[in-house]
Amino acid sequence: DVPPNDLEAFWMPMTANRRFKKTPMFFSAAEGMYYATPDGRRVLDAIAGLWCVNAGHCHPRIVEAIRAQAGKLDYASSFGVGHPLAFHFANRVVEIAPPGFRHLFLAGSGSEAVDSALKFALAYHRARGEGHRQRLIGRQRAYHGVGFGGLSVSGIGWQRAQFGALLPATSHLPHTHDLARNAFSRGQPAHGVEFADALEGLLFAVDPSTVAAVIVEPVAGAGGVLPPPQGYLQRLREICDRHGILLIFDEVVTGFGRLGAPFAAQALGVGPDLITCAKGMTSGTVPMGGVLISDRVHDGLSQGPEAVPELAHGYTYSGHPLACAAGLAALDVYRDEGLFERAARLAPIWEDALHGLRTLGPVRDIRNLGLLGAIEIDGGDGAPGERARACAEVCLERGVFIRALGDTLILSPPLVIDEGQIGQIVDAIGSGLRRLAA
Ligand code: PMP
């Protein structure tokens, strides 16, 4: 364990540790739903690490698969050579993907997956002789990682502002967070399908024939867990189709069961053209990201009139053997333990539990979909985020680890959670809210 006086040796940009407490919270071990601290406390993990440990921490089958693979084949590149596990893994992911997605590109993280998907969209149009389609459209409050492409289409201003102009040809749709009409909605809000029409407005201004792709998280995650209004994603799909624009779902958070189906595309019944994923892909164990590519995009890329024989894109760690082994084991666990179905079964219980918090303190909104949740705190007159952070600290004192993002408490537990643990999470948040109200 790192002695506290050595902490300054680390520079940990963009981690909450230093702001959360003077001394960072250390987790030194984990098992199932729980982290353990160096001083021996057990902490219930209500956010699956960072929305990733969907099968629970240190799942023995995943641990064993990584261990076995590490002693067998440590590395093989995806350039000119390969290894069978990457093909097995891709086939297994494709089996659970929405219909019409028979290709998987492998990367090393969510940010790499997003940048890859954006590049594939540009290359797709180019291969079809439409290289003038270069504009990428994101959305306010979106989080798409830290690559130049992903950050350029992200819509959280303070994260972008530090780095200047980023990619030039980008635009942003409005977010769908409509507290006035939708506060305390359960699941997908009833109002707001017309937010999608802003895309038509934007296309009027920028010329639709210059637009390559629209990228959205089906449920905006780091922007505050914002489930899409009913009909919104369907309408985005229709508008994109009308104008020959690709629709990308960033499923880094929603992929691998979070909404009770393998992907949000299936849970919400909307078919995008490209799907990015990461996190739950290996249940958070070994870094990995990926892009599911629809047959239509794949065929356009490879057979369009101006297609190139081989796309100049790939990473040293594309299809890393350890990640593939972890991913295969995670898929086995998801299947054998029925974890996606479990998420679907628990979702209404989760919803009731979260919405029961409404009257316990200064709560402005409660949102949920699948096993995602958010409690938006009324910040009052204090500094932004101060009350939410205080509430998260009470939870930690009570042995529950949650994340405060601005004024919002974010919840995204491992899919192995049980009803008792859901109760523990809301009890801890309830204590925090009562303390704020006192
Ligand atoms: N997209 C979304 C929707 C995400 O939530 C994240 C990470 N939280 C990313 C992309 C980036 O993933 P990574 O941090 O693995 O690069």
TrEMBL record:
Annotated SUPFAM superfamilies: PLP-dependent transferases
Gene3D superfamilies xrefs: Aspartate Aminotransferase, domain 1, Type I PLP-dependent aspartate aminotransferase-like (Major domain)
GO terms, molecular function: transaminase activity
Co-factor(s): pyridoxal 5'-phosphate
Keyword Transferase: yes
Annotated family: Belongs to the class-III pyridoxal-phosphate-dependent aminotransferase family.
Record-linked InterPro entries: Aminotrans_3, Aminotrans_3_PPA_site, PyrdxlP-dep_Trfase, PyrdxlP-dep_Trfase_major, PyrdxlP-dep_Trfase_small
UniProt-listed Pfam families: Aminotran_3 (PF00202)
Organism: Bradyrhizobium denitrificans
Name of the protein in question: Aspartate aminotransferase family protein
Keywords: Aminotransferase, Pyridoxal phosphate, Transferase
